[in-house]
Input
Amino acid sequence: MFIALIGKDKPGALEIRKANRDAHVAYLKSTGVVAQAGPLLDDAGEMCGSLVILDVENMTAAEAWAAADPYAQAGLFADVQLIAWNRVIG
Output
């Protein structure tokens, strides 16, 4: 099942994001469940959140994946939503 993770950064947390980006990207690549991923951008074009499409067995697996993400462990996100998603195109 596909799960969309939408994480919105805490205000002023760009440096936390940058400091943990390499570990986060390595995690994305190593887990084998990421279908698509990329940063959300603010009006100035700066990274301010994340969108990750997970291909996992169930919501419990998505929750475990999200908890182990280096961004989550660094306290980057003010809010994280995990939402079941149905791919129509792509």
In short: Strands lie at 2-9, 34-41, 47-55, 77-85. Residues 14-31 form the longest helix (18 residues). Helices lie at 14-31, 59-68, 70-73. The mean pLDDT is 97.
